[in-house]
What does this fold into?
Amino acid sequence: MNTPDVETALRALEDARRILGRYVDRGPRDPEGTLERLLAVLDREDLVKALDRINGRRVIRLVE
It folds into this structure.
């Protein structure tokens, strides 16, 4: 059962996997840029609220 909240979480997970996949591919790496992109995906307000609703409890933000 994919609710809008689950869809939001799955989209964020797919985005994060794509970012990490680019990082582990051969070639030059940008750890700082990768971390910034991951934070942009995983600390979005819509994702935090979706996780709150899925978990039924407050999810702590990664960055305050």
